[in-house]
Amino acid sequence: MKTPGPSGEGPDPPARATGLPPPAERGATVIPDRVVARIAAQAALTAQSRRAAVPPDRSAPVAPSASAAVRTGSVRVHLTMDLPYPTDIPHVCERIQQDVAQRVAQLTGLRVGEVALTGRRLVTAADASRGRVR
To answer: 123 pLDDT exceeds 80?
Structure first.
């Protein structure tokens, strides 16, 4: 149950009750580019395993790499990652881009303007089953 404020018109706003300035005057949260890039790389790794089904490589799995540029509340992300072959590459890339954009926006609160994706290499099931030649 709400109690009327001193003027009898309604409850006092929280900023006045706690002595804080209005939200617009308190400052801003700044998320560095490298933090957004790490979030994007992790989201790409998750999307890659879910959407692209890239088989694990025996030598050393190469995780997706990412860079980000944050400007005035929005972000542009560039991903570089391995892609499966054979598959519908445009469809897989589109789904990965959507997943990464959604996850970055969800975790950072930034608007994702663009997610560019570059295929580092195409990975086939034969690549994963081949061992190292000595």
So the answer is: yes
